[in-house]
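Marked as duplicate of an earlier ticket. Keeping the data here for the record.
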Amino acid sequence: MNRTLKLTSAATAAIPRVIMITLTCIYAFSGLFGHDPWKNDDAQGFGSMWMVAHGNLHDIVFPHISGRDVLVGPPLPYWIGGLSIQILGSTIGAVNAARLVSGLCFIAAALLIWYATYLLGRRSEVQPMAFAFGGQPSPTAFGRTIADGALLIFIACIGLAIKVHEASPLLLELFGICLLIFGMTRSLGKSIQGGAMIGLALGVIALSGSLTGALMLSVGSVMSLTLGQVKISRVGLCVLVLCFGLMLSIWPFTWYWTGASSDHIHQAIDVWLGPFALHKISSLGVLSDLATDFWTSTWPVWPLFFWSVYVCSKSDRTIWRSPHVFIPLCVCGSQFIPLLFSIDLNEHTLLLLTPPMSILGAFGLPFLRRGLISFIDWLAMLSFTALAIFIWLIWFAKLTGYPAATADNIQRFIPGFIAHFDLLDLIFALIITLIWIFIVRWRVSRAPREIWRCLVISASGTTLMWVLMMTLWLPTINYAKTYQIVAQHFAQALPKNARCIDSRFLGDAQLASFVFFTQLPLQDDESCDYMLTHNQEEAKSSARLNHQRLKMIWEDRRDSDRDERLRLYQILENK
C-alpha cells in the first residue's frame, strides 16, 4: 500500500467505457481512408505492401518496391498489409486495405496499454492509504482510473497523429511493444500465459523492426523478470524462449524454402540487424538529434513520465523494484540503448518509447499539484481552441475567398488547387467541434476531482485537431502530398515505344507512387532507353560516365513542392 497517497473514491471515478472506445476508434480511423498514398513513409510502405500482394514468391520473402530490388525491412508488416490488400483490396481499395492494418494495430495497442496499466494499478503496493472510516477507492476502481489516464496520455501524444495513420511498419512494431508490456504484466499472475505473450511480442518486434532491438528488449524482459518483483516460473521462461525462437525462425525458413541467393540473404541479415554504428554516440550527434526531436514528438507524454520518475525518487527505494515502475523503465531503457547507436534517429524510433512512458506517467497523475493541473488544462484548451479556429478559418477562406489575404496565401502555397464543398465532411467537422465545446464547458464550469481530469482536454484536443484536418483539410493535404497528378502527366508524355524507364535516381516514395499510379515499367536499370529522375546532376554524371547523351522529353513538379523537379530523359548513345 502507498502510504503517501491519499485519495477518495470520488477521485477514481472511471470514464464510461463507451466514451473511451469511441474516442479511440474516432482517432484511429479518421484520415485512414479516402486519399492517395502520401509522401514519404506512407507511399513507401504502401508500395512494398502492394508489391507483396501482386508479386511472386521472391517479392513476398524479400519485400521491396516494384522496380527496385532493395529490401525495405523485416517482412511481417508487409506480409500483413499485402494479405489485407489481397482480401479487401477489391472491396475497399488497395490503399484503404493497407491502411486498415494500421488502424487495427493502433486500437489493439491502445487496448493492451489500458489493460496492462489496469493490472498494474490493482496491485496492493500502489493502492492509496486506507482511511479509518473507509471512503478510499477499491483496487479495481483505482486500477481502472490509472488505466484511463494511461490511454488518454497515449492518445494525446502529438507525434503519433500522422504516423499512426500511415501504411507504415511502425504500427506493428508499436503493437509489439504494447504486447511485450502486457505479457510482462500478465506474467505476474499467469506465468505460462505471460511467457507466451512476451515471446510472441519479441518475435513481432524482430520481424517488424530490427533483430538487435528485439534482442535488447529480451534482455530488458529478463532483467524485469529476475531483478524486479516480477517473477516467472521455469516453465513460463521455457515457453517464452520457445515462442521467441519459433517467431525468429519464420523468415530464415522462407529463405531456405525458396532457395534464396546468398546476396539476398546477406542483404536481409544486414537490414535485420539494423543500421548501427558504435562510434555514433561518441560524436554526440544522436544527443543533439534527441535534444531537438524528442520533446516535440512525445509531448505531452514526457513531462508526465519524468514527473512520475521524480515522484518515485522521493519515495521509498523499494518502489523501483515494483512492477508498475520497473517494467516500463526496463522497456524504455532497452529501447534507448540501441537508439543511441542508431545511424538514423527519426521520429519512428522515438514514438516507440511512448507506450512505456505513458504507463509510468499515469501513475504520477495522483501526485500532480493543483496548479500544474490547471496549467496543463489551460495550455491545452487555449492551444487546441486556437488551432481549431485556424483550421476553420483556412477552410472558409479556401471556399469563399474571404479573407482575401488568407485566400491569396493559400493559393500561393498550393497553386492550382480548387476547393470543393463536401456536406458530409462539414457535418463531421461540426459534430467534433460541438463535442469539443461541450468538453471545454464541462471542464471550465466544474471542478472535477478525478485524477485523469487534466488529460481530457489534451486527448480530446489532439483528436479534434486530427479529425478537423482529415475532414476540412483532407482534399488540400491530399493535393499537396500525392504524386497522382504529376504521374498522370508523366504517363501522357512518355513515348509509346518506351520499353523500360530507369528509376535509379528516384526516391522510394516517388518510385512507389509512380509505379502504382501509372503501372509503367519503371526499374533501376541503367540499360533502359529512358530515365525518370528528380536529381538532374546525378543523371548527367551517370550519362557522362556511360558515354551517353540525355534528351529531355518532359519536366514537371507537384504544385505544392517548388524544389522538386521531375524530368524524363531519352538516353542516346554518343556518336
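See parent ticket for discussion. The CA atoms of residues 362 and 535 lie 48 Å apart.
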